[in-house]
Every structure is written in C-alpha cells, then in structure tokens.
C-alpha cells in the first residue's frame, strides 16, 4: 500500500547555520497516527512545516500519496492542499477574528460549493454547539476554537492532517475531549495523522507508532506500546524516566545524564547524544549510528543495541 506521506532523508538548515532537521526518514500509512515526540527545539515544528510543504527542505524528498512534492511551487501545491491539512497549537492565531464561526466553517466547504447547512453538519461532527455558529472566535473557549480548526481541516476529506501540539495550549480536562474527537474522526474517515508533541503522555495516548527526535535526528521509532514499555535508545530511556511522576523510587531509577545539549549550529559528527550518554563508546563519536532492530517494528540508532548492552542501569541512591 502506498504511504500517505513518505519523508526521505530530509535535511533542513536555517539561515545562521541551524541544522534543525538531520537526515529524517519516515512513512505514514492510511489510517495511521505517527507521533513525533521530542524536547523543545528538537525540530518537530520544522518537520511539520516541511511535511506540508509550507517550507522547502534543504535536502531530501517528500512524497504525498506517492507524488513527489519536494519542489512543487505554491501554485502547483494549491490543489493538493485540501487533502494535506495542518492544525497548529494556537487556534486564536489560526482563525480570522473578523469571521463568524459559521463563515469560518463555510470557507473550506466553498471548494465544492458548500453552504450553511453543510457548515452545521461539520459543526456537529466535531461536537461544536450550533449556537456558536453566529459567534466570533474571541467568544469561544480554546477547546471550542480547536474544534473549529479541526472541523476546517477535515472539511474536504483530507488524507493527512499534521497536528503540531494541538492540545498543548488547552487545559487537561479539555485535552482528553479533543484527543477523543481526533480518534473518532480517524476511525470514521481513515485519515492519517502526524501528531507532533513534546508531551509524552499525549503522544502515547493517540499514536499507533512513535518517532523520538533528538536535535533533529530520529533516534528511535516503534509501535507506541513497545516503545513506551521497553525504550531502547539511552536517550528515550532518559526521556521516559524523567517523565515519571515524583515518587521515592524514581530517584533510584533516574539515570545520570550529564553535560549540555549540543548546539544545533555545531553538531557532533557521531551520535548527538554521545556526549551525555552514560553508555557511550569511542565508536559512538565516529559517525551517525545506523538504526538497529530491537523488536518487531522497533529500532533505535544506538551501537549498544547490537550486543544488547543498551540498558541504562539505575543510578545509585544519591542519599
Ligand atoms: P520544536 O518544534 O521541536 O520546538 P523547531 O522545529 O521549532 O523545534 O526548531 C528546531 C530548531 O530550529 C531550533 O534550534 C530552532 O531555534 C531553530 N529554528 C526554528 N525556526 C527557525 C527559523 N525560522 N530561523 C532560524 N532557526 C530556526
Ligand atoms: Mg514546535
């Protein structure tokens, strides 16, 4: 089956020498949600912009439904836009404040002559109270506005929605409802999703598969359940242990990671995590480590995996 989105060896350098994306490859199947997780500054949003071609990559290829869109002009991309949608973190910034919710919903439907009746159906599909249709964005809550953004994204039966931190500006109680809505819409329509978040728990909840990003490079990828259960890369292990809730036993399990995150302007030649990794070998600094298989569908870019010495030992009790 053709992937809805295939990213191949993507590289992106910003002016000033920032290497935001470093040789990233992945594919998303129809009906699948790939979670892209990483700390702030790891290149998640840049990958989202490249995937939707709101930005052109320095190197690499982007295939949407098998079509190479890497170098297409804005004009050539326009007819594809309906099938390739984005939802951003900030629904206030994404919606025209001078348009009523009804008009905001009608706008994407116009592509095939949509009207208010269809806008109402759309509102119902995202469980937006019909009373909001006559209101303006500033009169709605953040959760309702995000439902408007999602409604606009699904209006023209997209094949892929890229969601960049779609619930990060929302209260926890509102977040669950939005995640449930996304899951429902995916079940109904088979739309594929690239779900970008720095929040591990959110990513675990919505993703079929997860890719872990560190300094613009994917260090590990696998089925969500396997990756969260037995993370392979020392960086993923660290990330997951740091995320555990405060607990007397956590201190014992925390891994001692030292040093600073390298600058994205001057990245090391080998594994980007080597300088901080308690398990680093001299060979880790020689060149980018290749992906090693861990379990079905799960792989990580760590030399230690070959002989299964990749498990971080719990730090000793600091007391
Ligand atoms: P994330 O979404 O994971 O927080 P970003 O993709 O926003 O990460 O940023 C990745 C890196 O690229 C960061 O080092 C960031 O400072 C840099 N960056 C992002 N946008 C620009 C830009 N327009 N110009 C220069 N550097 C940028
Ligand atoms: Mg971001």
TrEMBL record:
* Pfam annotation, one family: oligo_HPY
Q: Which domain of life is it from?
A: Bacteria
InterPro entries given in the database record: AAA+_ATPase, ABC_transp_ATP-bind, ABC_transporter-like_ATP-bd, ABC_transporter-like_CS, Oligopep_ABC_C, P-loop_NTPase
Keywords for the protein's UniProt record, in alphabetical order: ATP-binding, Nucleotide-binding, Transport
What topology does it adopt in the membrane?
Peripheral membrane protein
Q: Which CDD domains match?
A: ABC_NikE_OppD_transporters
List localization entries.
Cell inner membrane
Residues of the ABC transporter domain: 5-240
Enumerate the GO terms in the molecular function aspect. Answer: ATP binding
Instruction: Quote the SUPFAM superfamilies the UniProt record gives.
Output: P-loop containing nucleoside triphosphate hydrolases
Q: What is its main location?
A: membrane
Keyword DNA-binding assigned: no
Q: Where are the transmembrane segments?
A: none
Query: What is the similarity comment for this entry?
Result: Belongs to the ABC transporter superfamily.
PANTHER family this protein is in?
D,D-DIPEPTIDE TRANSPORT ATP-BINDING PROTEIN DDPF-RELATED (PTHR43776:SF7), TRANSPORT ATP-BINDING PROTEIN (PTHR43776)
Name of the protein this chain belongs to:
ABC transporter ATP-binding protein
Native source species: Falsiroseomonas selenitidurans
């Amino acid at each position: 089956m053709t992937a809805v989105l295939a990213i191949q060896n993507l590289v992106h350098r910003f002016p000033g020498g920032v290497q935001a994306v470093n040789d990233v490859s992945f594919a998303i199947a129809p009906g699948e949600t790939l979670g892209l997780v990483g700390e702030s500054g790891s290149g998640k949003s840049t990958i989202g912009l490249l995937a939707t071609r709101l930005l052109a990559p320095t190197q690499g290829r982007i295939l949407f439904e098998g079509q190479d869109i890497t170098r297409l002009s804005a004009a050539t991309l326009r007819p594809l836009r309906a099938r390739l949608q984005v939802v951003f973190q900030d629904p206030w910034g994404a919606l025209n404040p001078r348009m009523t919710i009804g008009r905001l919903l009608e706008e994407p439907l116009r592509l095939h002559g949509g009207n208010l009746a269809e806008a109402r159906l759309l509102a119902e599909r995202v469980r937006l109270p019909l009373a909001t249709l006559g209101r303006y964005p500033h009169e709605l809550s953040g959760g309702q506005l995000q439902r408007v953004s999602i409604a606009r994204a699904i209006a023209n039966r997209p094949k892929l929605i890229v969601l960049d931190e779609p619930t990060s500006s929302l209260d926890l109680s509102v977040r669950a409802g939005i995640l449930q809505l996304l899951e429902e819409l995916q079940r109904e329509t088979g739309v594929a999703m690239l779900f970008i978040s720095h929040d591990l728990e959110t990513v675990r909840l919505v993703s079929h598969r997860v890719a872990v990003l560190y300094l613009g490079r994917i260090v590990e990828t696998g089925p969500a359940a396997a990756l969260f259960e037995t993370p392979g890369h020392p960086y993923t292990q660290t990330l997951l242990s740091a995320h555990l809730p405060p607990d007397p036993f956590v201190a014992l399990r925390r891994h001692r990671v030292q040093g600073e995150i390298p600058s994205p302007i001057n990245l090391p030649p080998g594994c980007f995590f080597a300088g901080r990794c308690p398990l680093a070998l001299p060979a880790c600094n020689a060149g980018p480590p290749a992906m090693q298989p861990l379990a079905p569908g799960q792989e990580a870019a760590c030399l230690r995996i070959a002989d299964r010495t990749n498990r971080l030992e719990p730090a000793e009790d600091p007391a």
